[in-house]
Amino acid sequence: MRIGLIGLGRIGAFHAETLAALDTVDSLVVTDALPEVTARVAAQVGAEAVDTPAELLASGVDGVLIAAPTGLHAELTLAAVAAGIPTFCEKPLAATPAEAERVAAAVAAAGVPVHVGFPRRFDPAFLAARAAVEAGELGRLRTVRSTTLDPAPPPAAYIAGSGGIFHDCAVHDFDAVRWVTGREVVEVYATGSNGGAAFFAEANDVDTAATVLTFDDGTLGLVSNTRYNGRGYDVRLEVHGVADSVAAGLDDGLPLRNTHPGATFPAGPPHTFFIDRLAAAFRAELAAFVEVVAGRAPVPCTVDDAVAVAWIAEAATRSLHSGRPVRIAEIREAAAVG
């Protein structure tokens, strides 16, 4: 199988190594906006280098993975779909929820499979939590808690174009809680604060946030995020029901210092980055995409899923700046009228 990869930044370069190591991928074609980056990554993984995304899409690839900057996701996804090429797009699908809806409509009309990247769906513990909920082991759900705590912030230029903490960081939590519970979010209340670099406030963003989600069956979700978690990279999920409770992310790399006397958990060392915490999930995610390209499996995370979490992130952003709860239906209806 011949796979193309557009964008070779931090995550793109990691994906290049992962794809090159898959037995099902016979050849890899890569490109980046910086020719020197294209050449370097191609040499590292034994890939074919091309100059532009258009050249890559015309090179006979069976599938394409888009890891370019956020602002290019919609354009590149639409180009790949127009060429009839099964596509993997890193989150977000588009810069705004309304634009994501337009991309989703085009994808549906074309009938080309598009897989959106949310790696927690492939983490073994998250999968087990979802299976427990689906099997009814927890009974009626009461709360779900999801956490993403980064050890250090991205550069200022990245934050300026990220869409904010809810669209860039918390969106993974929003997808995880929606997927694990199998329920839709109907209302969002979010708050946040800044205590770190000035560039967050300059981008009208926050470096630490908390979000309360109300689901359509009354289940409550609690999401916490920060760009400053000194002990390491912390990704966790808890699901609490009337019959049982489960948690994902409580391995020995959990970046928490346990103050219980005599406790030896977690043994460490703490996770320091999303790539080491979710390495296995990323590999499983790309292996699943190859199965989609081959026609052997359905898309595990669809454009409709991406649209749903984009609206949650947008509601959280609006709630942060307005200081009030925001209903998903309210902003979707306003966008449709506008």
Brief write-up:
The chain is of the alpha/beta class and 338 residues long. It has 13 helices and 13 strands.
Task: Characterize the structure shown.
The protein is α/β, with parallel strands linked by helices and 338 residues long. The protein has 2 domains: 2-118 and 284-301, Rossmann fold; 121-278 and 308-330, Dihydrodipicolinate Reductase, domain 2 (2-Layer Sandwich). It is 41% helix and 21% strand. The chain is built from 13 helices and 13 strands. It has helices at residues 10-21, 35-45, 53-57, 73-82, 97-110, 124-134, 156-160, 165-181, 198-202, 274-277, 279-293, 303-322, 328-337, and strands spanning 2-6, 27-31, 48-49, 63-66, 87-90, 114-117, 141-149, 185-193, 208-215, 220-226, 234-241, 245-248, 326-327. It has a 7-stranded mixed beta sheet with strand order 12-11-7-10-9-8-13. Strands 3-2-1-4-5-6 form a 6-stranded parallel beta sheet, sandwiched between helices. A hairpin with a 3-residue loop joins strand 11 and strand 12 (245-248). Helix 4 runs parallel beside helix 5 (97-110), helix 5 packs antiparallel against helix 12 and helix 6 packs across helix 8. The model has no long low-confidence stretch (mean pLDDT 96).
Describe the secondary structure blueprint for this structure.
Elements: E1 2-6, H1 10-21, E2 27-31, H2 35-45, E3 48-49, H3 53-57, E4 63-66, H4 73-82, E5 87-90, H5 97-110, E6 114-117, H6 124-134, E7 141-149, H7 156-160, H8 165-181, E8 185-193, H9 198-202, E9 208-215, E10 220-226, E11 234-241, E12 245-248, H10 274-277, H11 279-293, H12 303-322, E13 326-327, H13 328-337
Parallel strand pairs: 1-2, 1-4, 2-3, 4-5, 5-6, 7-10
Antiparallel strand pairs: 7-11, 8-9, 8-13, 9-10, 11-12
